[in-house]
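Private note to self, pasted from the team thread so I don't lose it. C-alpha cells:
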C-alpha cells in the first residue's frame, strides 16, 4: 500500500510540475486560462507531492509511525478538500484545473481507503505484536 501511495504522490507532483510549465506557456501566450490560483495550487501540489514521497520513503524504510500518521491524514483529507474545490462554484479555479483536481481526487481515493485498512495500520502500530 505504501509503495502505491508513493507512486501516486510522485505522479501528482510530476503532473503539477507540468501544470506549472503549461501555466507559464499559457500566460506568455496571453491566455486568460491562468490566474494566481493556478500558480499557487500547482506549486503547492508539486512541492507537497515531493514531501509526501519523502514521508513514504521514511515510513517504509524505518516503519516510522509519525510519517505514516501524516501520510494517512493527508491521504484522507486531500480527496475531501479536492471534492469541495471541484463543486464550489466560486473557487477561482478555471474549469480545466477543476478537471485536473478531480482526477487527482480519484487517484487519491484508493490511497485514503488503503491507508485505513487495519493491516496497514498494524504495520505502523506502537506495539507491533498487537492485533
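Design output:
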Amino acid at each position: 500500500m505504501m509503495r502505491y501511495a508513493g507512486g501516486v504522490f510522485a505522479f501528482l507532483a510530476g503532473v503539477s510540475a507540468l501544470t506549472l510549465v503549461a501555466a507559464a506557456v499559457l500566460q506568455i501566450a496571453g491566455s486568460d486560462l491562468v490566474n494566481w490560483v493556478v500558480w499557487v495550487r500547482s506549486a503547492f501540489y508539486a512541492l507537497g507531492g515531493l514531501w509526501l514521497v519523502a514521508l513514504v520513503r521514511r515510513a517504509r524504510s524505518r516503519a516510522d509511525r509519525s510519517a505514516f500518521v501524516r501520510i494517512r491524514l493527508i491521504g484522507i483529507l486531500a480527496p475531501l478538500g479536492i471534492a469541495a474545490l471541484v463543486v464550489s462554484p466560486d473557487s477561482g479555479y478555471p474549469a480545466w484545473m477543476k478537471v485536473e483536481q478531480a482526477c487527482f481526487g480519484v487517484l487519491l481515493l484508493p490511497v485514503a481507503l488503503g491507508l485505513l485498512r487495519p493491516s496497514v495500520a498494524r504495520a505502523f502500530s506502537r506495539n507491533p505484536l498487537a492485533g
